[in-house]
Design brief:
Strand content: 15-25%
Helix content: 25-40%
Radius of gyration: 31 Å
Number of strands: 22
Oligomer: single chain
CATH architecture of the largest domain: Orthogonal Bundle
Number of helices: 21
Largest sheet: 7 strands, mixed
Shape: globular
CATH topology of the largest domain: Topoisomerase I, domain 2
Mean pLDDT: 77
CATH superfamily of the largest domain: Topoisomerase I, domain 2
Number of domains: 4
Length: 668
């Protein structure tokens, strides 16, 4: 009999369906899913059943020897109290003899670590060669069967296990130690502001101020803004064709609706110009590859945030659901590669063709790929399960998941096709006024030959995303031209306005949505594709950041944390330090560095940071006190509190509420 350990309940069910195992129940643990046949028993671990934490139970915040307690580098595993039934069942299963134990968790660092923790703590197995491993990128029945027919030794995942442990260990010692010390400093500042009144201090429901290895640099990243230099520009309106838009003598960019999207800056004031002379015409044909690259985790999270306003945590949950239902490949991946055989690509296209009337010429061709790779998984693409029946069923049963799947399918289709041939004509002008001559260029682009695309209106919207239809921009402009000279009115037809901030500058200006934050975290090397949405969600839950319809901003409590970090320990807010550790973790996966090397570096850096903070502790406490606002009503200090019984509801409240019934509060 073989024992198969999965990561999630639905994953266990999908594997059981593929391997012809039926559901069974253990009367002692009815909430734990079990599936069996004559050869196998399948169960689910449901994530981390053992969590890494510090050995010390609690920091004595106000004790004189608080510095001697920090940083605590000793860790221990604690059983998850929410999963006592699963842990007890695992111990019972460990007492039995099995022909093989197979780890069938997700093929990444977290999945490998989850499987290893179960082996170590329940089965007392540390030799990975004793255990088999099933690798799969989707939960299609055919792929599950293939993976179980080609099991490998769990030893091949040692790099994933060790990198996962390193990340878990470093996050624990950095996050818990730094949070406890920042909380200690804030409490000392509050006591100083209360003139040492410990009785009043003990009544205050103070909110927790936290820091972390990835959390702090991400908070600094969101807070960082630079100003875009807005410059004046002069436009000549063309109200006959496009009411409210400027057109003549400007470089024109078109959006998918053929409306003017952005107009270039013209040098100098055009008032007084009476004519424009055509001096030169240049023509050229260029071939443009309009094919897209497939989604990876960061790209689809950004896409869903921009188009539908779905935050990263929700997006990953929806994607995970589509994965466990077998509609898409594994959603936590950096890869933009599709290293599948032609037969499987054609099967996916055939299924899609029953829903989207795409051209048959895509069959037998390979999709376009990006440059990024992942050590374990391929890009996010649809599976062979996607056909007319299953997609329409999803549309009726779960519209949100259907919309996301629809975008993934369209993106996959957009990876196929041939390049588009475009004809570019460049017109050079001289604009004359009383004092000087200005030279400008008008560019017209026409698509003269489209690449192969969908042969139905179903994907018409997709077509517009990748190319511009035939469009002649010079119609009617030269109808009354005399030898290349155009006369037009001045003064009233020329107006000035400030240049609009181009969208491409949003990272230098401010974050527009949550997806932009996650994408920039990836660019800066902060976190992993699996942890970035969770980090963003944690910052939002703790009220360190807030999201408006147009931007993501840090809050008062977030700015308080940042002010402390940037002034007294800028390394904690530095992206360089965290990115280097993330690079080291990748090297552990590849075998370039050992687990011990990375752990030692992380411990050493943390100790150096605490030495730096200890030297300036008295000054830090005074600076924190100076930054604590005073109540306008009674003059007492206002501190970060949480509502009793709800630690996530944080506000800035007057300490006089406990003594003078002053109910003055401020939003964070």
């Amino acid at each position: 009999m073989k024992l198969i350990l999965c990561e999630k309940d639905r994953q266990a069910q999908r594997i059981a369906e593929a391997l012809n195992a039926s559901e069974t129940f253990d009367e002692q643990y009815p909430s734990v899913p079990l599936f069996t046949n004559n050869d196998i028993l399948i169960t689910s671990l449901k994530g981390h059943l053992w969590n890494l934490t510090l050995s010390r139970k609690k920091l004595l915040y106000m004790s004189d020897n608080a510095q001697q307690q920090l940083p605590d580098l000793n860790t221990t595993y604690q059983e998850s109290k929410r999963n006592n039934d699963r842990i007890s069942l695992l111990h019972q299963l460990a007492a039995k003899k099995w022909d093989d134990i197979i780890i069938a968790t997700d093929h990444d660092r977290e999945g490998a670590l989850i499987g290893y923790e179960a082996l170590e703590h329940a089965f007392s197995i540390t030799n990975l060669n004793q255990v088999k491993r099933a690798h799969f990128t989707s939960l299609e029945s055919s792929e599950i069967i293939e993976s179980f027919n080609n099991l490998v030794s769990f030893e091949k995942d040692r790099g994933f296990v060790e990198a996962g442990y390193c990340r878990s260990f470093l996050d624990a010692i950095w996050g818990i130690n730094l949070t406890q010390y920042i909380q200690t400093l804030y409490r000392k500042a509050v006591i100083l502001g209360l003139d040492g009144d410990m009785d009043l201090f003990r009544k205050l429901p103070l909110a927790t101020l936290s820091s972390g290895r990835v959390q702090s640099p991400t908070l600094a990243l969101i807070n960082q803004k630079t100003t875009f230099a807005s410059e004046p520009e002069w436009h000549i309106p063309d109200t006959d064709r496009h009411e409210g838009h400027s057109r003549v003598f400007t470089q024109v960019h078109l959006d998918i609706n053929h409306e003017l999207l952005h107009l270039c800056t013209l040098e100098g004031n055009l008032n007084g110009i009476t004519k424009a002379t055509l001096t030169d015409v240049n023509e050229a044909q260029v071939t443009i590859d309009c094919r897209k690259t497939p989604f990876n985790t960061d790209k689809i999270i950004k896409f869903l945030a921009e188009k539908y306003g779905i935050n990263p945590t929700q997006a990953l949950w929806f994607l995970e659901t589509l994965y466990t239902e077998g509609y898409i490949t594994y959603p936590r991946t950096d890869s933009e590669k599709i290293p599948l055989e032609q037969d499987r690509i054609d099967k996916i296209l055939t299924g899609i063709k029953s829903v989207y009337d795409i051209t048959d010429k895509f069959l037998g061709t390979m999709p376009n790929e990006g440059e990024k790779e992942d050590e374990a998984h391929i890009a996010i693409i649809p599976t062979t399960k996607c056909n007319k029946d299953t997609v329409m069923f999803l549309k009726l049963s779960n519209p949100t998941n259907y919309v996301i799947l629809d975008e993934i399918i369209k993106r996959f289709i957009m990876c196929f096709g041939n390049p588009t041939l475009k004809e570019i004509t460049e017109y050079n002008f001289e604009l004359e006024d009383e004092d000087s001559i200005h030279k400008y260029t008008l560019t017209a682009t026409t698509s003269v030959k489209f690449g192969e695309w969908a042969n139905s209106d179903v994907l018409e919207a997709v077509k517009h995303q990748v190319t511009i239809e035939n469009y002649s921009i010079l119609d009617e402009i030269w109808e009354q031209a005399d030898d290349g000279v155009v006369e037009f009115e001045t003064q009233t037809s020329v107006y000035e306005r400030q240049r609009v901030v181009p969208r491409r500058y949003f990272f230098d200006h401010e974050f527009i949505n949550e997806g932009n934050v996650v994408e920039e975290m990836s660019n800066q090397g902060l976190g992993t594709k699996a942890t970035r949405p969770g980090i963003y969600g944690m910052l939002s839950e703790r009220k360190y950041i807030t999201t408006t319809p147009n931007m993501v901003l840090t809050t008062r409590i977030g700015n308080t944390i940042l002010e402390f970090l940037t002034k007294h320990c800028p390394r904690l807010a530095s992206r360089k330090l965290t990115a280097e550790l993330e690079s080291d973790l990748n090297d552990v996966v590849k075998g370039y560095k050992t687990k011990e090397e990375v752990l030692e570096k992380g411990k050493r850096w943390l100790c150096d940071i605490f030495d730096e903070l200890f030297e300036k502790e008295d000054q830090i406490v005074r600076d924190i006190l100076d930054g604590i606002p005073r109540c306008d009503r009674c003059g007492n200090i206002m501190v970060f509190k949480h509502y009793r019984g709800n630690t996530n509801s944080i506000f800035l409240g007057c300490v006089g509420y406990e003594t003078e019934n002053c109910n003055s509060i401020m939003s964070v």
